[in-house]
């Protein structure tokens, strides 16, 4: 956490650091993987280390788009080497967010990823419980950086968080890396189609989860109604017995 605080101080106190970070944010926000690839490649032998650090940076500076860097890694290092680099560095970034939240608390997290974003993820956790981390990682339209931060504010164990993160993150990383390794300037439609496919798949997973919750609540409601009916029957029977006893007493 000392490193994070030192980085924050450097950003606000040193103009050169401020300019460099702002330039990184600009490159991420362009959505141009080729620009990011050229930036990483410019560091030569240190390119992989720089990419690793950038993935952690985009995790902490939520919500910058990680897939831009995933595409760049695959295009620069080859799809399976890029996938390994992107997966491990994203895991490291998620761990950093988790421990920032656990060490600094909710107020600091709200400053990093906005109060509105955190409230949205909080509702997501309330709906899906322990499966939230896995489901969120499968949904391309959910900012996983927000999820990492909020998970650190809960009682979830770090081991459970990392296992769910690793499993949920792996499919998207592999597919994005495979496509990223083939990307050229004319592959924009392919990427768009891929995002739509992932969104539909994720919606199917989410719909299944919601259906199971609905069925579960229906069964609970049915059991409650059954218990209420049984209790009513028992009460009616008891009343009948009491009435009969009273009549016999008068006779």
Question: Mind explaining what this structure looks like?
Answer:
The protein has twelve helices and no strands. The longest helix has 63 residues. The radius of gyration is 26 Å and the shape is globular. By secondary structure, the protein is an all-alpha fold.
Please supply descriptive tags for the structure shown above.
single chain; disordered C terminus; 12 helices
Produce the secondary structure layout:
Elements: H1 2-13, H2 15-30, H3 33-41, H4 47-60, H5 66-77, H6 79-104, H7 106-113, H8 115-128, H9 132-138, H10 144-153, H11 158-180, H12 188-250
Brief summary of the model shown:
This protein is mainly α.
The proportion of residues forming helix, as a percent range, comes to over 70%
Mean pLDDT: 75
What is the overall shape?
globular
Number of strands: 0
Estimated radius of gyration: 26 Å
Work out the helix count: 12
> Helices and strands: which structural class?
mainly alpha
Topology as a string of helices (H) and strands (E): HHHHHHHHHHHH
Work out the strand percent. under 5%
For the sheet with most strands, the description reads: none
